[in-house]
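Title: Prediction job returns without error message
Component: structure pipeline
Severity: low
Priority: P3
Assignee: unassigned

Description:
Job completed but the reporter wants confirmation the result is attached to the right record. Sequence as submitted:
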Amino acid sequence: MPIFANVIESAFSPLINLFESIMVFIHAHLVGGSWGLAIVGLTVLTRAVLVPLTFKQLRSMQEMQRMAPQINTLKEKYKDDKQRQQQEIMKFYQENKITPLASCLPFLLQLPVFISLFYMLRTDLKFDICGQQLREYYSRELHRPITKNSQIPEHALTAMGHTVKGLTEVGCNVVAPGSAKFLFIPDITYKATGAVLIVLIAVYIGSQIASTLMATASADPNQRRMMLLLPLVIVAFLFRYPAGLLVYWITTNLWTIGQQYFIRQRMGPSPAAPGKRTGGDGTGGDGGSPNGKPDAPRGGGSKGKPALAGVGVAGGAGSAVPPPPPRRKKKRSGRRR
């Protein structure tokens, strides 16, 4: 596992250096020297850059909702041939310029930032947060002078008959007490424990569920259920890693909640799918009935049969009345006068 982690760290090295420089700048010039707020600042900057993609995500989800009846028709038509069904659905997406994965793009594009932050909090950023006290700590532990950061071991080793923890296993609160404190979190560079961990997980899950419900209000039900399971998947490994990662994710959830509220105020509600729109009088309106179900075909024709010519419409949209039968002439009794 360490070898795999080192390979990922090497691959993300340029991004790690870039985001570290951004965080150092935010810490020094924008947030008054708080490393926790520097993580918040990095999160806000990332989400602000992704705003255009977020609007594209919303439009794609609305378009998929509008096209849902046609997609369901294709699914029903090719229900016995799953391969053909997928081909026809993808063809339908292409013809209507729908991108099904657009809803996942903002999340996927955040992953490089999240992974880079993980490696920063494990090693690189500790040199900035702990400061000179980090070298002093390892000088005492290793019983030799440490003059360069490169001399600090990343992983545990044995020195002078005792085991010394590596940089990845030591939080800044141990080396320089209070240097990595943020709100009620004692150390953002080390995993949270006890009541702090419980509160962080509770806030994270609550904010994640709220942001998912708002962001996927018009999404496909299956996609929405999958997104609601995301908090459980992330919590399964987040509690073992630096608390700063939870700060990042909680911040991005709060951003999503505020952003979705703004979008709804600006863009209005999502368009209803065909057959479910309502008219101004509360009735089915364009192709729908008061109970939300599609009306009978106009013109009086039953399903699969052509409509009769000259049929009138009365009693509301879609309620066809058949023509009256021809009147029979009454026979007159007696002689004509």
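Comment from assignee: result matches the submitted record. The chain has two domains: 2-131+179-267, 132-177.
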